[in-house]
Every structure is written in C-alpha cells, then in structure tokens.
Amino acid sequence: MATVEVTFTPLAAHVRTARLVATAVARRSGVAESLLDEVRLAVGEACSRAVEAHQLHCPTEPVRISLTDQAGRFEIEVINTSPALGPPESANAGPESRPRPGTDPVKSAGGADDGALVPQGFSLAVIAGLADDVQISETAGGTSVRMSWPSAGSLASGSPV
C-alpha cells in the first residue's frame, strides 16, 4: 500500500479526524480488528501531544501524519514541526502545565485550579502501552512519534500478532 499523508491545522478538533483516518487506513491495511482501538487511541495521544506543542511554539504550522503498510507492518508517524522542544517528555507539557511544588501531578485539566495537569511523559507512556513498537525522534526541526502494529502481511508470514 502507498503511504497516506495527512496534514491538519493544530486544533484539538482535528485530532478526532486524524484518529478516524488512521483507523480506516489500518483496517484497509489488514490490521486485526482487535487492534484498531489501540491504533485509534495511540494516534489520538500522539496527535494531541503534537497539537499542544504546535499551539505553544508554531500555531501556523500544520501537524503531519504519515500512514504506511509495508513488510507486514502498519506504521504511523506523527510529526510536529515545533522547533527545539527539548527532550520528548518535555514536549508533552509546557511550563504552565507542569505541576508546582505541593500540587497533585495527576489531576486532570478539568480538576482543581492549581495548574497541575498530567505528569511529564504521560502520553508517551500511554502510546508505548498501545503500540506494538514505538520510536521517538527529536531533531532541531521537531519531534517524530513513530508507532507500528502487525498487518495482514505479517500474519501470512507466520509472525506473532
């Protein structure tokens, strides 16, 4: 299958569309029906992370997604072009969302007004738990989160699911 590429304005409303596109392409690529929820959730986490970084650092630049099926693997790469965000964990939480001393670091955004959101790196831990393989690359040009799952080609070759 050829690579499908999607770009979208860094708005939270577009994350749902990215999840729907990724799920449809995964299904067409032969990803097992039982893994589609994991694909949907992992893409949502990666895209939400990219949208947040873009809104903070480069709100006019689009978030890019690349979806490919090759060699029995369905691979999704979410690329944010935010410049120099530091280590991948810090790209998930800007200074205003980092917990202050004495606050609960796991309160949700809708919780108390103490400014605490989720711990740094939380979305990466969620993605790692959902995807079969995760690779995170940080460059001066931004961050790439690459995730993959087995597709129909790997089942035919006898690879485990």
Secondary structure: elements and pairs:
Layout lengths: L3 E5 L4 H17 L6 H22 L5 E8 L2 E8 L7 H4 L30 H9 L2 E7 L2 E9 L1 H5 L5
Q: Count of DSSP helices? A: 5
Low-confidence stretches: 84-118, 154-161
Fraction of helical residues: 25-40%
Strand segment tally:
5
Q: What's the gyration radius in Å?
A: 16 Å
Q: Looking across the biggest beta sheet, what order are the strands in? A: 1-2-3-5-4
Largest sheet: 5 strands, antiparallel
Strand content: 15-25%
Distance between the termini: 20 Å
- Decide which structural class fits the backbone: alpha+beta
One letter per element, helices H and strands E, the order comes to: EHHEEHHEEH
The averaged pLDDT comes out at 76
Question: Describe it for me?
Answer:
The chain is an alpha+beta fold and 161 residues long. It is 35% helix and 23% strand. It is built from five helices and five strands; from the N terminus they run E-H-H-E-E-H-H-E-E-H. It has helices at residues 13-29, 36-57, 88-91, 122-130, 152-156, and strands at residues 4-8, 63-70, 73-80, 133-139, 142-150. It has a five-stranded antiparallel β-sheet with strand order 1-2-3-5-4. The chain is globular, with a radius of gyration of 16 Å. The two termini are 20 Å apart. Residues 84-118 and 154-161 have low confidence and may be disordered.
